[in-house]
Amino acid sequence: MSIYDFKVQNRKGEDFALAELKDKVLIIVNTATGCGFTPQYEGLEELYKKYHDKGLEILDFPCNQFGHEAPGNDDEIHQFCTLKYNTTFDQFKKIDVNGEHASPLYQYLKGQIQNDEINGTKNKLAMKGVEVLSTTCKKPGDIKWNFTKFLVDKEGKVIGRYSPTIKPEEMEPKIKELLSVN
């Protein structure tokens, strides 16, 4: 099984085969519009603008499981992101990332890398607080909060899992390496 075996639904509910993204570097992120990490949309969009033409794709999966911070429907969420943050990368249908209704894609991602990469003591303490607040983070490997980011290489291998406290721009050196960009 690989990431290319999965289909997801775009925000209009149409199937999208991840096999269409072969030979691309992917950032897969669960998001929310009312979260303290929501401004990370700016960093994600900057990475997208900078590296999309070199092979970067960002897959945005809104999720309402953490503090009910993505309460709108798919169109409302999309409108918020495009108006407030000028996002142009692909946004998909709202999903669950933990629990019995978790997206099969997220079940796979969590199985590939079970622990978030967290830089610095301050960020580790912040994530401990987030874990306490999270009511859906019950099993090892579960997503702890909004804006957990997975990095996937051109061969479809999940090579990184970044906590919400890691800003998108902190991923840039690894993205450049995967894209073979100086």
Automatic annotation (TrEMBL):
InterPro entries linked: Glutathione_peroxidase, GPX_AS, GPX_CS, Thioredoxin-like_sf
Family the entry assigns: Belongs to the glutathione peroxidase family.
PROSITE patterns noted in UniProt: GLUTATHIONE_PEROXID_1, GLUTATHIONE_PEROXID_2, GLUTATHIONE_PEROXID_3, PROKAR_LIPOPROTEIN
Name of protein: Glutathione peroxidase
Record-linked Pfam families: GSHPx
Catalytic residues, chain numbering: C35
The keyword Oxidoreductase appears for this protein: yes
UniProtKB keywords: Oxidoreductase, Peroxidase
GO terms for biological process, alphabetical: cellular response to oxidative stress
High-level lineage: Eukaryota, Fungi, Fungi incertae sedis, Chytridiomycota, Chytridiomycota incertae sedis
UniProt cross-references to CDD domains, sorted A to Z: GSH_Peroxidase
Any GO molecular function: thioredoxin-dependent peroxiredoxin activity
Catalytic activities: a hydroperoxide + [thioredoxin]-dithiol = an alcohol + [thioredoxin]-disulfide + H2O
